[in-house]
Design goal:
The structure holds two protein chains of two kinds.
Chain A: E1 5-6, E2 12-13, E3 20-23, E4 33-37, E5 63-64, E6 69-70, E7 75-79, H1 111-125, E8 130-136, H2 138-149, E9 154-160, H3 168-183, H4 200-214, H5 217-223, H6 243-258, H7 261-273, E10 294-300, H8 308-320, E11 324-330, H9 344-361
Parallel strand pairs in A: 4-7, 4-8, 5-6, 8-9, 9-10, 10-11
Antiparallel strand pairs in A: 1-2, 3-7
Chain B: H1 6-13, E1 20-24, H2 30-39, E2 42-47, H3 50-58, E3 62-65, E4 80-86, H4 95-105, E5 106-114, H5 119-128, H6 152-162, E6 164-172, E7 178-179, H7 186-191, E8 194-201, H8 205-210
Parallel strand pairs in B: 1-2, 1-4, 2-3, 4-5
Antiparallel strand pairs in B: 5-8, 6-7, 6-8
The chains are: A alpha/beta, B alpha/beta.
Chain lengths: 366, 217
């Protein structure tokens, strides 16, 4: 993208690159496009193997031929967010003015900025109107921002396990993660790439702490209980005696292979700054006034990071704006991560909602 | 109309095509689906049970999980042409507040509820001495969600008290056949198993003159 982007922080940023994946085919009247927005640690590899880890796409249960986001029917687009580290311009890229990685001289970006960048991509692809925008967690924040900023471009909006603002508790957890990264000597004030280092210990701790918040007590107990890892008795030391410790260490150590520490700082900050009502003088419903988009809000019973109460607040605001809204809370013990997992009720709900929307939109069946 | 419960069929007949409708306590969405399909209404629903909501949304209906006590306040005044509350009022915590909200957010409210003054219920209590269980009141007392049961006369008295106008009322017998009995009379209170009321906010003389009582909503 050659034309600079005016960011919330006041910087005109650009030119910049957006890395994206598409699945399926855009129909002749360009009415079947679905934008999938990824979460904090996600990327554009929704339904094909990750180029670094080789693991399956993060939403391959949802996106594919015959699945809920049916690639035989819809044209699916997913772009790496601005500030990310999988091809879209982020702090690990070279600042053309200095010839060094941006590091902390990268401008602070917001969820709104991410959405502005995505809008540029869709303009570039010749897509004026999206049949649906969907995503979980930070992806859901982007969905809400899309619906508020470009209502005429969004036929259906499906924010999953999301909220209209980041809570104090969530900001607190993010701060722990950022402090862990910045406390790692290898972080070197953010200039680690220029110095040939990487703050892998700090980033791993950040991921471990965050990962706990994506699960639930019940899920942790179900998966690990107090089971010991490859031993019959505790060692009276600080090895990973418990399976849950071993699991978290594994989550941390694999994360650092695919994620940039500064990106983690920038993206968590963008989530912290997200507050849709603040943009509209404190009134959330005015963010959606006059909207014709059809909303489907989905939350999970055991999600304590983005609890149902936040979704309900959103529903009330949408009701106050007389918006067309559906709201479903899904019973599961999988916590916040439920949106990424096999949740039959999530699939059925979303399939039904999208089928209804497709009828209203006049989209042919596949 | 086939397959739709009698009282719902009656309610459906009271609703004009293309109306903006909110069905509170919409259950599996039978009425809403019927109205959307046959009357092209702009239909929304609210349902307490998660399975009901998921089934509705899964069938393409716009339904939110919520309850009448907690989740109606956010709607703006006059958001709907018709708000339907069928067989749900008796399960709300604050029926009076709910009723006031219904006529605020809807130009009209259609409310149906089981009549606790129905003669069979009276006799059941008189002769059996136990809490009545019927096809409308299916739960034993210790697990019933119906915490605010009332008779038709109780209901009409409350409407009078809070200034809610009864535009039309239909009382139904045990087989769902409508009686044309005055809801204020003791006969309706004795013979009707349930009542269906069309209500509106008493907005003073000017508005009252503008809306003809008894017309279809």
């Amino acid at each position: 993208m050659r034309e600079p982007l005016r960011l919330d922080c006041g910087v005109d940023f650009g030119p910049f690159t957006i890395a994206y994946q598409t699945y399926g085919t855009l129909n002749p009247d360009r009415s079947n496009a679905v934008l999938v927005c990824h979460a904090l640690s996600g990327d554009q590899y929704v339904a094909d193997p990750h180029p670094i880890t080789g693991k399956p796409g993060w939403w391959e249960t949802m996106v594919g031929p015959g699945l809920v986001l049916d690639t035989d029917r819809f044209f699916i687009v997913c772009a790496n967010v601005l500030g990310g580290c999988m091809g879209t311009t982020g702090p690990q890229d070279i600042n053309p003015e200095t010839g060094e990685p941006w590091a902390l001289s990268f401008p602070v970006i917001t969820v709104h900025d991410m959405v502005r960048a995505q809008k540029r991509l869709l303009d570039h692809l010749g897509i004026d109107s999206l049949f649906c925008v969907t995503g979980g967690s930070m992806g859901g924040m982007q969905v809400l921002q899309w619906a508020a900023s470009y209502p005429e471009s969004v036929f259906a909006a499906v924010p999953i396990a999301a909220a209209a603002r980041h809570s104090a508790q969530n900001i607190a957890f993010h701060e722990v993660g950022r402090q862990a990264i910045m406390a790692d000597p290898d972080w070197s004030g953010g200039r680690y790439l220029s110095l040939g280092r990487r703050p892998v210990r700090g980033l791993a701790v950040a991921r471990m702490a965050a990962h706990i918040t994506y699960l639930s007590e019940a899920a942790l107990h179900r998966k690990f209980g107090r089971n010991l890892q490859d031993r019959h008795t505790v060692t009276y030391g600080f090895d990973a005696d418990f399976q849950v410790e071993s699991y978290l260490r594994h989550q941390g150590s694999t994360f650092v292979d695919r994620f940039d520490a500064n990106s983690y700082l920038y993206i968590t900050r963008a989530m912290d700054y997200f507050d849709l009502a603040a943009e509209r003088g404190g009134s959330l419903s005015s963010a959606f006034s006059g909207t014709h988009s059809r909303f489907c809000i989905i939350s999970f019973t055991s999600d304590w990071l983005f609890p149902t109460s936040e979704s309900r607040e959103l529903v009330h605001a949408l009701n106050a704006a007389a918006a067309n809204v559906s709201f479903v809370e899904i019973e599961t013990d999988n916590g916040h991560d439920a949106f990424l997992l096999h949740e039959p009720e999530l699939f059925e709900t979303l399939r039904g909602f999208l089928t209804g929307c497709a009828e209203h939109r006049g989209l042919a069946r596949s | 109309m086939r397959g739709l419960r009698r009282d719902l069929r009656l309610i459906a007949e009271m609703i004009d095509p293309g109306a903006r409708v909110l069905d509170i306590g919409c259950g599996d969405g039978a009425l809403l689906a019927h109205l959307v399909r046959h009357k092209s209404v702009d239909g929304r629903g609210m349902e307490l049970s998660q399975s009901g909501v998921n089934s509705c949304v899964g069938h393409g209906l716009s339904v939110i999980q919520g309850d009448a006590d907690r989740d109606l306040q956010a709607y703006p005044t006059g958001a709907f042409d018709v708000v339907v509350l069928s067989q749900t009022l008796q399960a709300t915590r604050e029926p009076r507040m709910v009723l006031e909200t219904l006529v605020r957010i809807g130009r009209r409210a259609i409310v149906s509820f089981p009549n606790f003054g129905f003669w069979r219920i009276r006799l059941h209590l008189l002769f059996c001495g136990r809490m009545p269980v019927s096809h409308l009141l299916t739960y034993p007392w210790y697990e019933t969600p119906n915490i605010h049961l009332c008779t038709i006369r109780d209901f009409v008295a409350m409407c009078d008290e809070i200034g809610v106008r009864v535009e039309r009322s239909v009382t139904l017998d045990r087989h769902g056949q409508p009686y044309s009995l005055d809801p204020r009379g003791s006969l309706a209170n004795l013979l009707a198993e349930q009542g269906v009321f069309v209500l509106s906010e008493n907005r003073g003389k000017i508005n009252a003159a503008a809306s003809t009582p008894g017309r279809r909503v």
